[in-house]
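quick one, four chains, predict together pls
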Amino acid sequence: MEHEPNDPGLADLVHRLRRFADERDWQRFHTPKNLAMALAGEVGELLAELQWLTPEESAQVMADPEHGARVRAEIGDVMIYLARLSDILGIDPLAAATDKLTEAAHRYPVERSYGSAVKAPSADRTG
Amino acid sequence: MEHEPNDPGLADLVHRLRRFADERDWQRFHTPKNLAMALAGEVGELLAELQWLTPEESAQVMADPEHGARVRAEIGDVMIYLARLSDILGIDPLAAATDKLTEAAHRYPVERSYGSAVKAPSADRTG
Amino acid sequence: MEHEPNDPGLADLVHRLRRFADERDWQRFHTPKNLAMALAGEVGELLAELQWLTPEESAQVMADPEHGARVRAEIGDVMIYLARLSDILGIDPLAAATDKLTEAAHRYPVERSYGSAVKAPSADRTG
Amino acid sequence: MEHEPNDPGLADLVHRLRRFADERDWQRFHTPKNLAMALAGEVGELLAELQWLTPEESAQVMADPEHGARVRAEIGDVMIYLARLSDILGIDPLAAATDKLTEAAHRYPVERSYGSAVKAPSADRTG
């Protein structure tokens, strides 16, 4: 079972989030549906920071202190909701990620994927 | 700077993702814009697993082996892209999350937030 | 081809958006990638307006003048980007929607779908 | 009030969607929360079709029959859920869009916005 992430840094964040919600009696708002919507909202805010940049500009965004700080803040918000949602569901997101990556390594062996148009680490989308 | 996350579990995932992309010569597809779009795509797939459930059903989704496995897979995909995007940008998402949470604790002190309608740990959205 | 939507209201919006972008020399920012990201960002803002509500509260959201106005504004933004993106791609979104719905009626015949758990008009997601 | 869109093409889609849901007794799944999540899920699928393309490739995506058909299908799905959600909320999305655009024209007068970095038709994001 994955109720407690093995990983110390993630476990620390998960505990802080539990305390934060408990102190404010906010647990009842934290259903998986609500948290998934909040996660999508924060990802939207992250996209908004990058949407008008060229790919090259996006690669340099952290060089601008103000813009970089906003991007970092949105990454933080996305991580918050991913950690909280995963905890409520009893999932360790790092373990889940590693399992998906192992799967992807089989689905996209190097000899067949090198430099190719099929670029997604996740093969869910067969387009 | 945050080029290497302090956290061992996250650092391990970040390294695996670098190797995965390097082996396949996929780095050129991994601009921040593309990775942010991929992240949004995976969050969309996660929402799709929960969208027709009631809040109560969503709280029980992991009890169904098939549905739970799909949810876990999507959580894994979201973590993959968040980790990869953060790495490309040179951001430690756990550190960014902890900083946002500290900020939120000031913005939503317990005495004023207990059980209230203002529930978001992130106060970006004042709407 | 679908360069001009048949539909007068949508065609009017499409023309206004073309004028708006041309007047400001913003066309070069309006690549399909950028517009798709902007669309996702606005959908995120819409979700943010509903994320902490219960399903019942969400059904009453328009009864609150302030909250209802914000929801309407986000719907407007989503429609703006969907119309602009579709126009740039040469797609009539209403025609595309009608075609999908016709497809869905075949994939979900009433006799097999009545009241069932499979609720999505779109059968893309076989989960 | 905006319970019936003025626009014939959109009104036709709205009516078809009402019939589709009524025939299958699916109305109870169509709360604004659920429909907003479904909308986000479909936008995620649309982003997935564009995420690995360069901006130039994305501008040519409709030239490929297979890829173009998938993009058109996703645009259709997004329009379906936007129309259904708007109808449930009693909002005319075309009217809401036109109102936002009028607002934006004031917020971004041509003389101050020409070719500038501030490119969003929607000024919600001042970040």
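The CA atoms of residues 113 and 119 of chain D lie 8 Å apart.
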